[in-house]
Amino acid sequence: MSDFEITVKINMELNELLNYLQNNRFVFHQSFRCIDIFLIKKEEIDSIKSYEDLNKCIILRELLFKDKILKYLVIKNKTFDQKGNVIDSKQENITIKSVVDTKNNYLKKGYIELVRMDDYCYTFSKNRHEFIIEHIPLLGTFVELENLNYDSDVVNGNSVEELIALLDSFNLNYDKSDYFCKKAWLLIEKERLNEV
Q1: How far apart, in Å, are the Cα atoms of 76 and each of 38, 52, 54, 173?
Q2: CA atoms of 68 and 173, how far apart (whole Å)
């Protein structure tokens, strides 16, 4: 089965959303912080014109849990339909010892930092269906729901339409105009606007 997901922007403040989940029998699993540093070859910086172009990036990822820190070099390869929606996503996570050292090695090879995304994450489930709340202070709060659970064999849906139906059953107030929010690209666009 191909991996796919939906990501939507929530029309609620983070605290309001967390209170809603806790008061409506959603099960809280854990919280963690995810810091992603997108690196791109310097000569390719001007070719980053759309979200699809982020396939050219490598990502240095640091996951900060309460009891451990995980560090990865992440290589993503996403396939898009004609509308720019992600229809397949492959990801390779390579464990690294140091984000700083790895970044410095790539900088020496001619890479530069494109964007840094700092994400506060909360994992919840309802009827064993897991999803992640992602809060990025500069952008707002998002819900990400994948076709397969992160930590179990539960299938959340066999199509995007089934994921949307499951999400709708949670009765969350979210923006229904975009089921494929591209957080990194939104952050890049926001930073580019601030440079003008």
Answers
A1: 11, 11, 9, 30
A2: 33
